[in-house]
């Protein structure tokens, strides 16, 4: 919410403060934040009573900071009553959160984040994450991928890999994030960091997607023209499916391969079915492409 956008001002909703959470002012900022951050990280929450998103964020901040049990402190500053340091830090909208270490700001974010992302933000300040924290980051990354937040997913997986560069689920998730972002080279580099025999659904999907991209024709027009002239030109349909798979259009690729199988199950030594299984692997076992495609394949094969 931009500073100056003020709806009817409700009271600031705040959960009970512990010893690691306090209200700050411009007068106490140097002691509470600058000096205190020289011995432990300090998070500063710039808020206001009229700010709705602040009321969502503050309880999550307080909960996560309290759970850190002294590894970090939280100082909350009402920008209406204390505009000085908010102005110096160029706070344009609230909530805005800064992290201070050794007397200087080292990280920040704006807006109300879910508790899982607040936790990840705090864990960046409190040192290497333990196994459960890494699991939380991986879960956050997977959740972000599911909602299409590729940037958020990559950030979560990267944080996990900073602590454990050999973590297989994190490597698989990062590779998948690169693929969804269209960066095949980045995905290939991440896949290469994992042992060849490492097993993980996202890692397997990335390997399959890279194999499909490597084998894909560079254009589709010629094959589409052939199909328009002869719908039973299985070779043209197969090459078109390969091209679509290489582009990441896995549903289109699966549809064409299923059409070949429906019309000629054993065409070209079962090539369409073999390629279809690779497409399912690239999409991921829980994807709609794989789930719906397997049902259609079963219907074709057992009808």
From TrEMBL:
It comes from the Bacteria. Pfam families: Thioredoxin, TPR_19, TPR_20. The keyword Electron transport applies. It comes from Caulobacter segnis. InterPro entries: Thioredoxin-like_sf, Thioredoxin_CS, Thioredoxin_domain, TPR-like_helical_dom_sf, TPR_rpt. SMART domains: TPR (SM00028). Keywords: Disulfide bond, Electron transport, Redox-active center, TPR repeat, Transport. This is Co-chaperone YbbN. The keyword Electron transport applies. Residues 2-127 form the Thioredoxin domain. PANTHER family: GEO12009P1 (PTHR45663:SF11). Gene3D superfamilies: Glutaredoxin (3.40.30.10), Tetratricopeptide repeat domain (1.25.40.10). TPR repeats lie at residues 134-167. Residues 1-23 are annotated as: Disordered. PROSITE patterns: THIOREDOXIN_1 (PS00194), THIOREDOXIN_2 (PS51352), TPR (PS50005).
